[in-house]
Amino acid sequence: MLAALSDLGGADDELISAAIGTPIDLADALDGVPLIARGADGWHVAHGLWRSAPGIALHPGERDHIRRCAVENLTQRGRHDEAFSLVQRAELWDAAPTVLRSACLAPDRLVPTHLRRWLADSPEPVRASTPGRLAVGIYSNFTSPAGAHGPLEEAWARATVEDDLEVEMAAIAHRAILAWWEQDLATATRVVPRVFELELTGHPLARAMGSIGRALLADLDGDDGTVVAELGGIEASVLDTVWEVCAGWLCGVAHLDLGDAAATQQIVDRLTSLGNPTMQHMVDGLQRRAWWRQGLVDEVMSDLPAVIADYERAATSYSRHLFFTVAAIFSAYVGDPATGRRYLDDALRSAPPSDDDRVSAIEATGTAALELAEGREVEAVATLRQAAGQWGLDQGQDRRAWRQVLALSYVLLPETRKHWDSLALRGYLRIARELAGAVVALRERQGDQRLLTLDVPSPGMVRAALPYPFAAELAVGLAAVGRSEGRVLLEALGPAGRAAVRAASTRAGSSEAKPARALLAAVPAPPPRPTYLAVLGPLEVWRDGFHGEEVVDQHLRRRRLHELVAFLVGHRRATRSAIIGALWPDLDERAAVNNLSVTLNHLLRVLEPWRDSGEPAYLLRLDGQTVQLVTGEHLHLDVDSFDEHSALAASAEADGTPSLALEHHLAVTDLYRDDLHADLPEAAWFALDREHYRARFVSAAVRAGHLLLTRGDIEPAEGLAHRALAVDEWAEEAYTVLVGAALARRDRSGANRLLVRCLDALSDLGVEPSPTTLQLHRRLHPT
C-alpha cells in the first residue's frame, strides 16, 4: 500500500483501494508512519524518501496494473486532469483515449486549457483516435470554430461505425452548435434526422437534442408555442452549458414573440447562474431585449455599448448580425440614428451569405426604423412595403423582425393592420398595437375620444413600443385632450422627442401645430449641457462641470444678478415678493417688479442660452408668483458638493475610517475658494450662511491638516492651516497644526513662536487654551 501511494504521488481511500484491489482506510493504515502529509479532504501524500526505501519497490507488472487501475478510478470520478497526468507520467498512452472520451462526454467539467495541454502532450495515435478527434473538434469549437468541422465530422462518422452512441451524440451536439452559429442549413438537414433516429434509443442527450430539433423546425414555421413547449420539456443538466444557453436563448426570444417578457427574464436569470463566460454575450443580449420589452429603455441604452463590445469580441458572425440589427432599432427608436447607422453597418458586414441580393426582413425593418428616425418617412414606408412583399408579413423566422417593430408597420402600412388586429396579442405586443392604433387615429383626426379612454402605460413602455416620432405625436395628442401623460411623456422623450414636437408646432396648416406649441410651452426642455454654479468665492458659471467651459457673459457683471443668484441659492424656491423684499426694499412696487423681471431674464440667458423663445425654462422655473432654482443633474452648485462631502466626512469619522474622511475633508477645502458670495457685501439674508461655510471650512481644513501630519505630509498640512487662519485668525486648532508641523521638522524654536502667537490671540479674546494647546505647551516647556 505504501509503495502504491508513493508511486501514484498521492491518493485517498477510494483511489488507493481501487489501485490495490482491496478496501483500505489510509488514516488507519498509516497511523504512526512518518513522512506522510495528510489533507483535510482525505488525500495522503508520501514523502519522496519513501520511494527509495528498501523493501517497498513494486515489480514492473504490478506497478503497471496499479497505475491503470488508478487511471480508471480517476477517470470514473471525473478527475480527468489527474488521470491524464498519470497517463503521461507512466506513458500509458493506450489508456489516453478513454480519458479523453470521458472528459469530452462531461463537458461541464471540461476545462479548455486542460484539453489544449492534453492534446499537445499526446502522441499522434491518441489524437487520431475517435475520442482524440472529438477532443480536437471540441477544443476548436472553443477557440477557432472554423477548424472544428473536419474533426467533429470524423468523430461522428467513426462513432457511428463503432456503434458508440455516447461519442456520436457528443459529436452531433457540437456539430449542431456550429451549424446553429453559422446558420448552416445543409448540415442541419443531416443532423436533425439522425438525432430523431437516436432519440428512439432513449438516450437523454438524444432526447434533448430531439426536442431542440423540433423546436428549430417549429421556429422556422413561426410556431412559438411549440418552441416553448419543446425547449421547456428538456431534462435538467442533460445539455452542456453551451447548448443550454443556445436553447435558453431561443426559448427566451420565443417568449418575447408571445409577449411574455417576464418569462424571458426568468430564463435570463437561470442562464446567468450557469456562469459560462464564452456565452455570456448571448445572455446579456437576451437580457437587454427583455428589459426593452419591459420598458427599461434608458437602462438598455446605457448598457448597449458594453454589450456591443462583448459581441464584437466573442460572438459568431450570425449572432453579431442579429444583435447589431436589434441595437440599430433601439437607437432609432430613442432618436439616435447616427449610432444606429453604425450598428446596422456592422450588422450588414456580419450578415450570413445569401443566394440573392434581397435585403432580409430584419435588415429591412432596421433600415426603415432608421429612415423614420432621420425624418424620411416616405422612404421608410417604401422599405417596409418592399420587405413585406418579398418575405411576407409576420411569417416564419421573419416574424421576430416584424414583431420587434410592430408599431412601425401598423402606422406606416395600412394593409398590415387587419393582420395585427386579428391576433390575440399579449404584453408588450398588445401595448404596441394599442399605441400604434392611437397614433393612426390621431393622423386620421379621429383620436380625441380614443385618447380620452386610452390606457397609457409608463413612459418607458411607450418609448419601447413606439419610435420617438410616433411617441411625440401621441404626447401632443394626449396633452390636447387634457391628459397629463402627454407632458410626462414629452419629458421622457428627451431632446429627440422635443425636436419632433417643435417641428410639428411650425408645420403650416397642420392641426397639430397649436397643441404642439401649447405642449412645448408647458414642458421645459432639459438643458443639452449641465451647468455648474460656484458661489463659494466670486460667482463663476461653467458648462460641463467645474473648470469645463467658463461662461463669459456681460450679464454676469451685473451686481443685481449676483444678488438674485445668492438669494435663490439660499432659498431655492421663493415668492417674487420675498425676492423683491430682500433685493429692492426701497423701491416702489412697480419699479421693483420691473427690476426683478429684467434680472430674471438676464439670469435665464446666462443659465439657458439655447432656450427657444416662448418655451419655458428648465433650470429657473417661473410659476406665477413662485421662482424656483432647479438643482440636480442639470444644475450643480458647489455648496451642494460642499455639504455632501462634509456629511460623508462626518460619516467616515464615525465609522473609524480616517483615510476616507481625509479624502472628503480635502474635497471640502478644494471647493472653498473664498467667502460665500465673496463679490457681494454683507447682507442680512445670507450673513448666517456665509459664517456657516466659513466655520465648516476651517473645521475641515484643520482636521485634514491633523490627518496629513499623522502620515507625514507636512507641507500640505501647513498650507491648510494657513488657509484656515486666513479665514479665522483665532482658529486655535489651526495653530496646533502649524506647531505640530514645526515639531515634525524638529524646529522647536519655530514651534515655540507659533505657540506664543496662538496664546496671544487667545488672550486677546479672553479665552483659555484648549487641552491640546496646553499639551503642546508642556511638550515644548517640560519644566
Short description:
By secondary structure, the chain is mostly helical. The chain is built from 41 helices and nine strands. The protein has a four-stranded mixed beta sheet with strand order 5-4-3-9. The protein has a three-stranded antiparallel beta sheet with strand order 6-8-7. Strands 1-2 form a two-stranded antiparallel sheet.
> How many individual helices?
41
Structural class: mainly alpha
User: What would you call the shape?
Assistant: flat
Kindly report how far apart the N and C termini lie: 80 Å
Strand content: under 5%
The low-confidence parts are none
- Helicity level: 55-70%
What is the number of beta strands? 9
| Largest sheet: number of strands, sense, barrel closure | 4 strands, mixed
Q: Return the average pLDDT rounded to an integer.
A: 90
Task: Summarize the helices and strands and which ones pair or pack.
Elements: H1 2-8, H2 13-20, H3 26-29, E1 36-38, E2 44-46, H4 60-76, H5 80-90, H6 96-104, H7 112-121, H8 124-128, H9 130-143, H10 149-162, H11 165-182, H12 185-199, H13 204-221, H14 224-232, H15 241-257, H16 261-274, H17 280-293, H18 297-314, H19 317-334, H20 337-349, H21 361-373, H22 377-391, H23 399-404, H24 406-412, H25 417-422, H26 427-443, H27 448-453, H28 459-465, H29 468-480, H30 485-505, H31 513-522, E3 531-534, E4 540-543, E5 549-550, H32 559-571, E6 573-575, H33 576-583, H34 589-607, E7 620-623, E8 626-629, E9 635-637, H35 638-655, H36 658-671, H37 687-710, H38 714-727, H39 732-744, H40 748-765, H41 771-780
Parallel strand pairs: 3-9
Antiparallel strand pairs: 1-2, 3-4, 4-5, 6-8, 7-8
Helix pairs in contact: 2-4, 4-5, 4-6, 5-6, 6-9, 7-9, 9-10, 9-11, 10-11, 11-12, 12-13, 13-14, 14-15, 15-16, 15-17, 16-17, 17-18, 17-19, 18-19, 19-20, 19-21, 20-21, 21-22, 24-26, 26-28, 26-29, 28-30, 29-30, 29-31, 30-31, 32-34, 35-36, 36-37, 37-38, 37-39, 38-39, 39-40, 40-41
